[in-house]
Amino acid sequence: MATASDMSSNSTSKYLNRELSWLEFNQRVLDEALDPAIPLLERLKFLAITASNLDEFFRVRVGGLQLMVRQGSTRRDPSGMTPQEQLDAIAARVRQMADDQYECYRNDLEPQLAEAGMQRIRPEELTGMQRDVVEHVFDSEIHAILTPMAVTSTGEFPLLPNQNLNVCVRLAPDRETPDEDRFAVIPFAPASSRFISLPAETGYAYLLLEDAVRQFAGRFFVGETILECVPFRITRNADVSVRDDSAADLLVEMEQVLDERRTANCVRLEIADDGSDELVGFLQEALEITETETMRMAGPLDLSAFFRLTDRQGFDHLKYDSWPAQPSPDCPPGASLFDVIALQDVLLYHPYESFEPVVRLIEEAAKDPDVLSIKQTLYRTSRSSPIVEALMRAAEMGKQVTAIVELKARFDEARNIEWARALEQAGAQVIYGVKGLKTHAKTCIIVRREPEGIQRYMHFGTGNYNESTARLYSDVSLMTRDEELGDDAVAFINAITGYSQPQQYRKIAAAPIGLRDAVLEMIASETERKKQGQEARIMAKVNALVDPELIDALYEASQAGVKIQLNIRGICCLKPGVEGLSENIEVVSIVDRFLEHARIMYFHHGGEGRVYISSADWMPRNLDRRAELLVPVEDPTSRQRMIHILETYFQDTVKARRLLPDGSHERIVPTDDPPFRAQQHLYEEAREAIKRAEQQRRTLFEPHRPGEE
Q1: Segments in 513-579 forming alpha helices (H)
Q2: What is the pLDDT of residue 13?
């Protein structure tokens, strides 16, 4: 075990670096792509996810660090690293990761997929018939759509879209400049298909678009000598924020942010590794990119595009068996959800249990004549959101609909702007969040007139109101009409929509005022109880743990002897297992077929067992710069189920990795017990629950009442 004295004297050395911790998370995703026990197309999917993850990492995190370096910042982060030191460490780690990605693709996945009937064809491998097909596609589609742009100097380089595939063409000198090569750029159209289907006797064969352009590039430059034609791709900085505290019209300001991203500086150049030094140097000068910021790739650029191949029909044997979301036993088909929630709180754990009851609740509210108003937060929604459409119908039917649409949800700004305008047009009251904060809380309040008076029905969640991602992300939904939670939810919404000051809530805690203190208080309570000789325990499942103040509180609890189990999917800056500091803290991470997204917390609290769900991760941005919620789960059955789910993850010996003090992870070696996979176990439990409910319904005799048909 590491000891506190093993670390440097710098007080910040008790924290792991945030950026390097995130890269280790992406490595765990890559480990799934490297795992031969996983079906081939699922491995390809994980590989594509690692590439997509890195794209966002460069756009947001690396772009921000580069900006700090240009501004001359030498400020050290909590781990003790300057911005330049972080960039150097990131560059080294990313290069190793890229090597592993392409080693996996070239020498493992691509050959095995070809053997299984999904074959990538190189230009030199085309049969006569296949070449005819490619030539026809090029002449009828590609040549007509793509436009070559001559670049006479690096100062006249065209504005290229972020993360769009392009080719750079180097042409032989002409008579006027016999000593200088000439260059042209061909940007690919965003709507162009990356994969050109080819005739094949069996299976599926395809040629990459860039290979087709290379094959017939001469048709763009008739009479010219092409020296090389090389694919490349740029990543632009997306760390552009709006000063919404001074924005007169936030919607207009967000549209300007989107425009700024299109012209932001380049933070990464990816290029095929067969590009000459002359061509690479030309692009580096034109894009103002250094050698460190240039990545030569030993395979197809933009591996995230290969995600599209994973849904190809006819290859089900190369995919996981289907795990369809199960209906909740507590929400029978056809039953009014208002009647269901009036009887008891309903807790759903997605994606094992369907998100359908959440959608159904809002759709039912939209058409129910007794519903007076609906208030809802919207952060990330689907492209054709049934929830937003239900809110629009409710507004059109004369109900009071208030939608808090967070326009600052990164990379979903454009979609949220469209939904905000559509909701306003339907007659809803649309609020664009709070100045200076992002509204990340997930809640819906439905106010309904009933015989006994006005009732409020609430939904609280850890995930977005997005029925598409709810099939892929693990999240918790709590539906209740608890009176005090209703008071709190209304007060929270009113604090966002009006000028009312945040107040003391009865049961919930909200960021940026109160949530941090509530969590710190519960950690401190466990620490104090342990010092007094009582039993103390903390279990938590969050996506990221970065906040130094919370980490210090957990260190103090560990030193007092509190047993702490943390399930952190992504970034974790806490160092577990350090003697004298954190030897009582265990941190595991699970990467499996569903994305772990739920935030759940348990505190022993003298045996009472307090359980909470939250929209917030344990990061400064969530605790200090976002409107977030921490909601208690008080129904005994629901609370016990949450504890069971938390404990299930800590039993995993198949997909779990244990965090080590140096920031690396190790597989958990199973004991003599059979291998245990948490996600599979949770899915099987959901299936068994609905089977039991159906069996009970079949054996329940319900008499016909007079007047019933």
Answers
A1: 515-531, 548-560
A2: 77
* Residues known to be catalytic: 440
Exposure of 49 in the CB half-sphere (CA atoms within 13 A): 23
Q: Please, where are the H alpha helices in 245-324?
A: 250-263, 277-287
Radius of gyration of the chain (CA): 28
Report the DSSP pairing between strands 182-187 and 2-3: unpaired
Domain holding 376, by residue range, is 337-506
pTM above 0.85, yes or no: yes
Q: Would residue 20 count as lying in a domain?
A: no
pLDDT tens by residue, 406-456: 766 555 566 677 878 888 899 999 888 777 788 899 999 999 999 999 999
CATH of the domain at 478: 3.30.870.10
pLDDT tens column, 353-398: 999 999 999 999 999 999 999 999 988 887 889 999 999 999 999 9
- Would you say 261 is a known binding-site residue? no
Question: 659 with 545: CB under 8 angstroms?
Answer: no
Domain count, the chain: 3
Is 569 annotated as ligand-binding? Answer: yes
Q: What is the per-residue pLDDT across 656-702, written as a single tens digit (0 to 9) for each?
A: 999 999 999 999 987 778 999 999 999 999 999 999 988 887 765 55
105 marked among binding-site residues: no
Residue 599 annotated as binding? Answer: no
Q: Which has the closest alpha carbon to 614: 493, 442, 487?
A: 442
